[in-house]
Amino acid sequence: MRWHILGAGAIGCLFAERLVRAGLEATLILRSEAQLAVLQQLDNRIRVQRDHAWHTARVEAESISDRGDIRHLLVTTKAYDAVDAIDAISPRLTPDAQIVLLQNGYGHQQKSTQALAPRPVWAGTTTSGARRTAPFEIVQSGEGRTLLGRLDLPAGTSPALPDGWDRLEHRVEPCPDITRALWQKLAINAVINPLTALHGCVNGDLLEARFSVELEALCAEVEQVAAACSQPLFDTPLLAQVRAVAASTARNRSSMLEDLSGGRRTEIEQITGFLCTAARAAGVETPLSTRLLNAVRFEQGLRIREEQA
Prior knowledge:
Elements (H helix, E strand, L loop, with lengths): L1 E5 L3 H12 L3 E6 L2 H9 L3 E6 L2 E6 L1 E4 L6 E6 L6 H8 L3 E10 L5 H9 L4 E6 L2 E6 L2 E6 L3 E5 L21 E3 L3 H22 L12 H17 L9 H11 L6 H7 L6 H14 L5 H22 L1
Parallel strand pairs: 1-2, 1-6, 2-5, 3-10, 6-7, 7-8, 11-12
Antiparallel strand pairs: 3-4, 8-11, 9-10
Helix pairs in contact: 3-4, 5-6, 5-7, 5-8, 5-9, 5-10, 6-9, 9-10
């Protein structure tokens, strides 16, 4: 069984190694011939540092313009690239292809599911931590767990995992209410990601007293938006969840901080931008989230221009 992976960043390479370790085959779909050449120079091997030891996995690779059927597809691109990337390879998808969307943010999953119908589509969230240190080389900072659920689950059907995912050593669980899980991840990201990106700090720094007022107010605002959208979050306050995540990932740099520092486009529109849009539709004001959204937009534009200069 072969899984094609669209998006060869940290999470894409991490799951490629996990799939190969489980006895499955993995093929990375790369953007350019230059990326293919780099991987070939590495003997088509990706490297993952886990538990202070390096592990390698041999993968296949194709260009996004290649042909050939795709029966199993894992999408780990940035959220803003998802719809266009899927459109580019949709002619290769078989009528019964299984697709897994594993990305930050909210909203694009539903668009992709509609475009891919009637194929089965799983959306997912993961608490695995990973950062890329070189092309096709990543450091895993946390094992975490992954939840997968069908957004188009037929009525009366029990949740199940896509083909082969039950073989992974990593903890993967079928989720009967993936919409709630996606909102939970969105809520936490809407607090941690923009704050760490703008303050230039690791996740654990948000537990310091200097951030307490801003953290509490932002959590309350996000909870208000979720309630107005009739979307339940956690059984405990969001603030407690955010603090728990910040503590368990204390040394991690959020993906938004990494992208902003590197002069790359962030997922602020798919996280805080989505939240602010949903709030307006529900008649809720979001002064804190709107301020963070505009601040990240400004910094993002500034740093991208600096990188291009």
